[in-house]
Amino acid sequence: MCCQEPGRAFVLNKERWVACKGSQPRYRGYPCSVWTLFHAITVNAEQIERRNSMFDPKEVPVLMNAYIQQFFGCRECANNFGKGARRISSDVNGRTDAILWLWKSHNRANHWLHNDPTEDPEQAKIQFPSYKACALCRRARSYSMFDNATVWDEAQVLQYLTHFYAKSYIKHDTSTGGWWSLSLTGCHCVSFVSVMFRRRE
Fold it and tell me: Cβ(134)–Cβ(156) under 8 Å?
């Protein structure tokens, strides 16, 4: 069970969520937007640094874990993320490994939070992507959307994630006073992307 009880989840009263909007204000919102932002960062960091021979793919998830440990309000959630981060040194070696590492981490979290009181009853936490979204990502259609034992075709998953979180989905939203928004979420997230992934000259 997550550390936040129903009705006590962190809510930003002035924010208007779009794709991360829950059926009630206490659902989804900020945690959803953090996952979405992190997925976009892993994909775009690899694409931006593709020709940089000095690029260290571990840098991205290590910084994400540091952010979660310092700033994410749910301590149990941060601790669980940190447990997964212990595998960064062994799991993230190739240029695209961080993309798949984060995807696996997110699906593990969804598995453990499925049927948790913090789960939005109208938007269940599934193993992403669904069969409908990416039929080729699953090796068999019969696996449940909630089964963390699903057999994945990771090459297809990587292709799907790389397309879904591509740069074309990110736009500068001047209505937020210079903040960045992810058009696939509609959430407003401070752009620490430029701080984390400033190109090396």
Answer: yes
Rounded CA Rg of the chain: 17
22 domain-assigned: no
Residue 131 belongs to a domain with what CATH number?
1.20.120.310
The distance from CA 127 to its chain's CA centroid, rounded to whole angstroms, is 13
pLDDT of residue 8: 45
Residue 78 structure tokens: 């941060």
Whether 164 is covered by a domain: the verdict is: yes
Looking at the structure of the chain, the number of domains it has is: 1
Q: pLDDT by residue (tens digit) across 4-56?
A: 444 444 444 555 666 788 888 888 888 888 899 899 999 999 988 888 889 89
Residue 9 within any structural domain of the chain: no
Q: Determine which helix (DSSP H) or strand (DSSP E) holds 182, and give its type and residue range.
A: strand 180-182
DSSP state of 136: G
Cis peptide before 25 (omega within 30 of 0): no
Q: At what angle do helices 154-164 and 30-48 cross, to 10 degrees?
A: 100
What digits encode the pLDDT tens for the residues 64-82? 999 999 988 888 989 999 9
Q: Quote the tokens at residue 137.
A: 């990502």
- Structural domain including 179 reads 30-196
